[in-house]
Specification:
By secondary structure, this protein is α/β, with parallel strands linked by helices. It has 33 helices and 25 strands.
Length: 824
């Protein structure tokens, strides 16, 4: 089959030192067996094929028979997954536990499904996801653990807790797509996590990567010897790849440019579709996949391009089972779209139909390139820039570009794969250079060195000055700096940089140093625990230090020391939102929401503030909705961190205020009814329904009883559960003993106050004031507590004693009670 006419370059990578290994294997006459049954007889049923390909056979002795760490760089679709499975087989054969680190959450779920093959052989596979879902017993008993880098980071940080002790028993760590090291956001996380894991339990490490030009740097970092380091070139691709750059006529309108690029992409894909092949087109966003598929259907029909599935009765029938209506209409024309927001069943059907050839043209986001092995004869990258809710418009990473291009060519179906980058003419040379020369993997730790060093100190991994350099020498940053000193300012300057970083941590209060010994402060520990950037943690600390303002009339609480407006402003101004951009229509929507609030903030941060304010009321303007979900999720994480800072550095009532703000942002519920969200099973919908019936607190729910809740619109079963959960929340009684009605000037009397909680216990702050001046304050797990109350006759005509009980972890409004004593 001939390639469509286009101008460009063949994708080329340097072979690296792995080429020496392949020559050595051939010269020594070491020829590994090709059959699965022969190589791993006890695991043969775990492999979906009968024999290994050439790349797999050449790497097999190092992966299956050696104890050393292994690094393998090979083209996309060349069969690296089988090497991961061979490493796992070796670990299981020896009675050990394997950890597989996958780049995406979606991939961890896929591995759980795929590796049911190991389950049928009697081995346990467990995907470690969120904190709430963790089953420590299953994790401890698992033979194969699957995590993302972020989850592995979290687990290793908490390794000394009983819930995460299992992570120290890992015998082999397989890193899928280790070139993720070069990712701006996630690379440093992977780098420090692997280093931490090696210090904790020193597992064997098998690192797998798409083709990269500096595989030897990764091998040096992981201490993989030459005979366990492989750099397989394009000759090992099952299908030869032609990768080219295609330009388009750039205009002044970004929206119109999308369609210009789409038409260019269809020009490139059309010859393959006409010839019965398939095309996979990558676009910037989920919405773009849908819009591009809709327009492509119209355009293919206008061009009179024959798509094989049109008129297929069975497909029309099967498509009716799809949840997504637009997808249902699209696939019957042989055009589909795929993104993470689709229902799992819909995604599975799309993937199945694409593999079968039923769908000939598929639009997807870049996540598919890292996930499902779904090759196509033709791959086109329509968008090299994308909108990130937190970063604004960003360039797609070179890693993503190469990963996507590598999906071109279906083994067993195509003689060649054809991949195209569609870009503006001004960017063409840059992308041609990428295709010609590849991309060395760089460390991203330098930009986050202080944050990660603080975390290692907080974890106790680093506890003196010498440890700091020892830790640095275990990083990919150090290995890469040794390889490219000019680019990394290696040598003495690298040490100077680390010393300066440590000095900054000490000066800013994250670390304490005494001689050579260093240890974390409470600020440093909290910063690490909540994965905060240092500047954000410092801002949170300042808010706590400045506690004492009034509430600013937000109706969240009238006796809070921290200003609710300051809480929202501090979160909106956090470093995580530094790159948020506000488009013109979004800026116009800010005024009605904020009414002048935050006018000194940058437009992007005001946008965040407006989304939080509107979210608290449950009514986000349409012009602010596109990024609202992502921004709110990040804000909720930051609010949880700020609440912990308040518990440690301010007071329980301040933490309670932040907790109520957090609940309102999450549920979009009015201030008076926010306490309802403390009841398990009551979210924004039920809370609004109950509030409309005059039930705004858990105490109201208890008093209403099941019958009253049914009258308020709940079903009987739900009413019973809600009433039971409300009854379990704190329910306070106050008993003042010995408090006189009057006291003479100059006289005094000792009384006491008993606070009794008839519901379930919970951490609480109990504060007693007289005429607004604090007499006593304590934080305790509240069941029943008694505090002394001194009554002193002074100059005031009346003494008003007020007790306030605030629950820092619950979105319940503080509970107060008071007694008044006349001075006469």
């Amino acid at each position: 089959m001939s390639a469509p006419a286009a101008f460009g370059h063949r994708l080329h990578f340097h072979p690296g030192r792995g080429a020496f290994l392949r020559r050595a294997v051939a010269e020594q006459g070491v020829v590994p067996p090709a059959g699965v049954e022969e190589s791993v007889p006890e695991f043969a049923e775990a492999f979906p094929f009968e024999s290994f390909n050439r790349m797999q056979r050449e790497a097999m002795p190092a992966v299956l028979d050696a104890d050393d760490n292994v690094v393998v760089s090979a083209p996309t679709a060349s069969g690296k997954t089988a090497l991961a499975e061979l490493a796992i087989c070796r670990t299981l054969r020896q009675g050990g536990t394997a950890l597989f680190i996958a780049p995406l959450r979606a991939l961890t779920n896929e591995k759980e499904d795929e590796w049911e093959r190991f389950e049928t052989l009697g081995y346990s596979v467990y995907v470690v996801t969120g904190e709430r879902d963790l089953d420590p017993r299953r994790a401890e008993r698992a033979d194969i653990l699957v995590m993302t880098p972020e989850k592995a980071d979290s687990a290793t940080r908490k390794h000394d807790s009983p819930r995460y002790a299992f992570v120290t028993d890992v015998d082999c760590c397989v890193i899928d797509e280790v070139h993720l090291l070069d990712s701006d956001r996630r690379g440093a996380v992977l780098e420090v996590t692997v280093g931490r894991l090696r210090r904790l339990c020193d597992p064997r490490v098998v690192a797998l990567s798409a083709t990269m030009s500096n595989v030897e740097d990764v091998a040096d970092w992981l201490d993989a010897p030459d005979d366990c380091t492989f750099a397989f070139g394009q000759a090992y691709r099952p299908v030869p790849l032609e990768a080219r750059v295609a330009t388009y006529a750039h205009g002044d309108n970004a929206f119109a440019d999308k369609y210009r690029r789409l038409y260019r992409a269809l020009d490139l894909a059309e010859p393959h579709i006409t010839d019965g092949g398939q095309a996979l087109v990558f676009v910037a966003s989920r919405q773009d996949t849908v819009r591009a598929a809709e327009k492509a259907r119209e355009e293919l029909e206008e061009r009179d391009v024959e798509v094989g599935s049109r008129g297929d009765y069975d497909l029309h029938t099967a498509a009716q089972d799809l949840e997504n209506q637009t997808l249902r209409q699209s696939v019957v024309d042989g055009v589909g779209f795929h993104h993470a927001g689709l229902a799992t069943a819909d995604k599975n059907r799309v993937e199945e139909w694409f593999r079968e050839g039923t769908i000939q043209l598929l639009f997807s986001t870049s996540t598919l390139a890292w996930g499902v092995n779904l090759p196509a004869r033709c791959v086109v990258i329509r968008d090299t820039k994308l909108h990130d809710p937190l970063e604004g418009e960003v360039e797609m990473s070179p890693l993503d570009i190469l990963q996507m291009l590598g999906r071109a060519g279906r083994p067993g179906f195509d003689d060649a794969g054809y991949a195209h980058v569609v870009c503006d003419g001004a960017d063409a040379d840059r992308y041609r250079a990428l295709l010609d020369e590849g991309k060395p993997i760089e460390s991203r730790l330098a930009g986050e060195l202080a944050t990660h060093l603080n975390a290692e100190i907080a974890l106790g991994v680093v506890d003196d000055v010498e440890d700091v350099m020892d830790w640095l020498e275990t990083t990919f940053y150090y290995a890469r700096a040794a390889s490219a000193p000019d680019a990394y300012d290696a040598g003495a300057s690298l040490r100077d940089r680390v010393s300066a970083t440590l000095e900054r941590l000490v000066n800013d209060g994250f670390v304490e140093q005494s001689g050579l010994a260093i240890e974390p402060t409470a600020l440093g520990r909290l910063t690490s625990q909540y994965y905060l950037r240092l500047e954000t943690a410092a801002a949170f600390h300042r808010v706590c230090d400045g506690a004492g303002g009034e509430d600013a009339g937000t109706q969240i609480g009238q006796d809070d020391c921290i200003d609710a407006s300051a809480v929202l402003r501090t979160v909106a101004d956090a470093a995580a939102f530094d790159s948020v951009a506000a488009r013109r229509d979004e800026r116009e929507a800010l005024g009605p929401v904020l009414d002048g609030e935050g006018s000194d903030l940058d437009a992007g941060n005001r946008k965040v503030l407006a989304i939080l304010r509107a979210g608290m009321e449950g009514s986000t303007p349409a012009d602010l909705r596109s990024d609202a979900w992502v921004i709110r999720q990040n804000a909720l994480r930051l609010l949880a961190a700020l609440r912990a800072f308040c518990e440690r550095f301010a007071a329980p009532r301040d933490a309670n205020l932040v907790r109520r703000i957090e609940a309102r942002v999450e549920h979009g519920i009015e201030a008076e009814a926010v306490g309802l969200t403390a009841v398990e099973g009551v979210g924004s919908g039920r809370a609004s329904k109950l509030a409309a019936e005059g039930l705004t607190t858990p105490a109201d729910l208890r008093r209403a009883g099941v019958d009253g809740l049914v009258d308020a619109g709940l079903s009987e079963g739900v009413a019973e559960r809600v009433h039971e959960q409300a009854a379990a929340l704190p329910d306070l009684e106050f008993e003042w003993t010995g408090v006189p009605d009057t006291i003479a000037p100059g006289e005094n009397a000792m009384a006491e106050l008993t606070v009794r909680n008839t519901g379930d216990g919970a951490p609480a702050g109990v504060r007693v004031t007289v005429n607004g001046v604090e007499m006593t304050a304590e934080t305790r797990y509240l069941g029943t507590t008694t505090v002394p109350v001194g009554v002193f006759g002074g100059d005031a005509e009346e003494l008003t004693f007020t007790v306030t009980v605030a629950f820092p972890a619950l979105p319940l409004r503080p509970v107060t009670d008071d007694r008044t004593v006349r001075v006469e």
